[in-house]
């Protein structure tokens, strides 16, 4: 058996090899390449498991993919391909074939294979480097439980490192301590459906699975957990592929993740069949949506945050509960659109808790201060409990020293009690409505104004860069509108 340290070394060596390829330009590209290679080895090992189980039962097993496309055939050390022959075969034969697979029944693994490879592009130009990576991956055995479990955590670290690289990749990764805390507070149960409308690399869904795995005591419970629990949507190909891979490595046999833009759905058309018991989300913030998309919502807005909040509220079952990460601007802005969305959550749902996070949680991707809204559909709001997560030993968050589970220890103790403390306070609904639906925790702090947390200059520079980029995008859109193509 391969130890966790040996597995980590294998993955790191593979990344080092892929970084040297002239087709790879960043962390997200070598992560994508490593992901689909790992997946094919994983699929082969799982096929061997299925075959062994069939033979144990006295049944004949029929492989799910043709022999020439099976990992052990095309990677065979002596007869396998390498160099230009390997890249040509992967690009022109392997990927198109895998993308064309179609399952014959619900839960057929071929549907997941096809979903992944319809969105995969081999970016590695050198077949020799690919061959080196494949040789190293041969040492990993996904049919060994402890080894597969260790690798799932290593893969999560790989996704985290990709996110911490900043740029677009960070948009799809939420810090694990924050996700773990949110899942603990929501406390999902076996049999409940769990949905993330902007699932990225599936961090929330994976953590929910880890939380529930030990509670699935029977074969039927495990079947429900792996096949009928987790749902998500992601519109961008890369995180979609990484998310499917992440779920698969965590033993979710049939993750129901769709590649689509969640906001393209007219929420007026959502009925009970499209609703979920639990919704966990960190939707993209700072983005803009075109006018046609905005018409899918009762409250039209260019801000994606407001559109996602409307989608989530509408997609929640009558007794459902949700936790959503939002930028601070959503909380304190009181223009018509922001007020309308927040008032609906306050008066038609039970927006019971606002957890204010310290600045810097999403560094280096974003320096925007954020909070988490907790609401359910069990009743309407009576009061809102605000809690401010404080820094440990007054040490501000940085990209190298980020949020930890220790930051949330007190919150986990106080959440159900909803006590008034130096860090938390209960505010009647009437007072929140009177303040124009302002949901900023500091606005109601009975102990005086919240201290401003100053960040490193680099963090502010990153934020200014993001704002300027968005402003230039808006200018380009305006120019395009004023000068339509003839």
User: Could you give the order of the helices and strands?
Assistant: HHHHHHHHEHHEHEEHHEHHEEEHEHH
Proportion of residues in extended strands: 5-15%
Helix content: 40-55%
- Averaged pLDDT: 88
Oligomer: single chain
Q: How many strands in all? A: 9
Gist?
With 486 residues, the chain is of the alpha/beta class.
Could you characterize the architecture of this molecule?
The structure is a single chain. The chain is an alpha/beta fold and 486 residues long. It has helices spanning 4-19, 27-56, 71-74, 83-99, 109-117, 127-137, 145-164, 176-186, 203-213, 219-227, 237-249, 291-294, 304-315, 328-332, 336-348, 409-414, 429-434, 457-482; strands at 194-196, 230-233, 256-258, 276-281, 316-327, 350-356, 370-376, 383-388, 424-428. A 9-stranded mixed sheet has the order 3-2-1-4-5-7-6-8-9, with helices on both faces. Strand 2, helix 11 (237-249) and strand 3 form a beta-alpha-beta unit. The longest helix is centred in the N-terminal third of the chain and has 30 residues, at 27-56. The model has no long low-confidence stretch (mean pLDDT 88).
């Amino acid at each position: 058996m391969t130890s966790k340290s040996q597995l980590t070394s294998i993955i790191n060596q593979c990344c080092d090899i892929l970084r040297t390829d002239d087709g790879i330009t960043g962390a997200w590209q070598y992560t994508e390449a490593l992901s689909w290679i790992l997946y094919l080895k994983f699929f082969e090992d799982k096929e061997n498991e299925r075959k062994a189980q069939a033979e144990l039962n006295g049944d004949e097993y029929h492989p799910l993919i043709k022999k020439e496309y099976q990992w052990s055939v095309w990677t065979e050390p002596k007869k396998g391909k390498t160099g230009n022959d390997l890249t040509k075969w992967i690009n022109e034969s392997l990927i198109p074939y895998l993308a064309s697979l179609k399952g014959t029944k619900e839960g057929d693994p071929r549907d997941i294979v096809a979903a992944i490879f319809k969105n995969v592009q081999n970016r590695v130009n050198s077949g020799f480097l690919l061959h080196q990576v494949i040789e190293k991956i041969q040492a990993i055995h996904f049919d060994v439980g402890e080894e597969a479990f260790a690798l799932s955590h290593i893969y999560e670290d790989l996704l985290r490192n990709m996110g911490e690289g900043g740029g677009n990749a960070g948009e799809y990764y939420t810090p694990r301590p924050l996700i773990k805390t949110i899942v603990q507070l929501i406390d999902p149960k076996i049999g409940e459906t769990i949905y993330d409308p902007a699932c990225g690399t599936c961090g929330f869904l994976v953590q929910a699975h880890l939380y529930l795995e030990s509670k699935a005591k029977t074969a039927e419970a495990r079947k429900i957990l792996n096949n009928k629990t987790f749902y998500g949507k992601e519109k961008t190909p890369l995180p979609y592929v990484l998310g499917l891979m992440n779920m698969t490595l965590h033993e979710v046999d049939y993750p129901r993740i769709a590649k689509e833009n969640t906001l393209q759905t007219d929420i007026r058309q959502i009925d009970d069949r499209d609703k979920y018991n639990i919704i966990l989300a960190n939707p993209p913030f700072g983005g803009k949506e075109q006018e046609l998309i905005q018409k899918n919502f009762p409250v039209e807005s260019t801000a994606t945050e407001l559109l996602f909040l409307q989608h989530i509220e509408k997609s929640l079952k009558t007794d459902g509960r949700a936790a959503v990460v939002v930028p601070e601007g959503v909380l304190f802005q009181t223009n018509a659109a922001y007020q309308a969305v927040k008032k609906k959550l306050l008066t038609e749902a039970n927006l019971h808790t606002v957890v204010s996070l310290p600045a810097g949680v999403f560094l280096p991707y974003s320096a925007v201060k954020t909070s988490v809204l907790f609401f359910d559909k069990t009743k309407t709001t009576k009061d809102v409990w605000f809690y401010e997560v404080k820094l440990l030993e007054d040490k501000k968050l940085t990209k190298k020293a980020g949020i930890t589970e220790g930051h949330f220890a007190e919150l986990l103790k106080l959440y159900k009690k909803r006590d008034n403390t130096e860090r938390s306070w209960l505010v009647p609904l009437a007072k929140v409505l009177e303040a124009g639906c302002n949901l900023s925790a500091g606005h109601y702090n009975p102990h005086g104004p919240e201290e401003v947390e100053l960040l490193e200059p680099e963090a502010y520079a990153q934020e200014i860069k993001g704002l300027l980029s968005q402003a230039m995008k808006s200018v380009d859109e305006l120019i395009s509108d004023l000068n339509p193509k003839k």
